[in-house]
Hints:
Elements: E1 3-11, H1 15-33, E2 39-50, E3 54-64, E4 84-91, E5 94-101, E6 104-116, H2 130-135, E7 136-141, H3 150-155, H4 179-182, E8 187-196, H5 203-227, H6 229-232, H7 237-248
Parallel strand pairs: 1-7
Antiparallel strand pairs: 1-8, 2-3, 3-4, 4-5, 5-6, 6-8
Helix pairs in contact: 1-5, 1-7
Amino acid sequence: MVQIKEFRIVMPMSLAEYEVAQMYMVLKMQQENTTNAEGVDVVENKTFEDNVFGKGHYTSKVYSFQSKIPSWLTTFASADSLLLKEDAWNAYPKCQSVIKCPSFAKLHLTIDTIHLADNGKSENVHGLNKEQLASRQVEVIDIASSVRDYWSYLVGRCDVDFSTFTSARTNRGPLVEGWREHCYPVMTAYKLVTIDAPYWGFGKRLEQVLLAGERALFIETHSNIFAWIDEWYGMTIKKLRELEGQLYSSSSERDMKLVPLKHADVLERK
């Protein structure tokens, strides 16, 4: 059975700031989570133009995180073979990611994202039909919430307490109860996750695992975006593209020796 869930992640920043922040977060997390054994390999990274998204940036990546695979899943395929391949089309403020697993050829996982300058209350931004709306679930994610589940700890956990955190460079924060109602600037990432794993006996369980994993990843990545605001604030897309080019020009990102992104003060800003 196809599962459709829309996650709405409200962020205390503008649309333009989020574009920079999201790109910075992706680069930094890839560096921090890539080792000789596991991590992210970038297969292709280029600009694109089509009739669906217009102009944007396309990337193809392979994710190998064997240590985080549930043990029950290895009864169907070895951990080493459970790689995830992601094709992503980023035409900000619209993006789409299609994730496949060669070991489960029938698996279909798509993430469609639309970014809007609101606080998460827009309805049907993805233009779903009546049947899709009837099966869609909606969850608004609060990055300031301290509530985490098993998958959040497995994916990783941002340890910043946003109820006491204040950005030194922007003076934003702390994020106390009700912050989404009066925050400015503000924007929301509307992420529509569609999963179909048509496998008898374990398909539904696989769908639930992937959905829980995506939720945990959304929490972790967006928590890091705000926690690292003083690192990326003022950076330019041009400079980040240059850094991305350095990373992706190597045959393996694991071989790169770059200045740590946490030392962002050495990079060119506006």
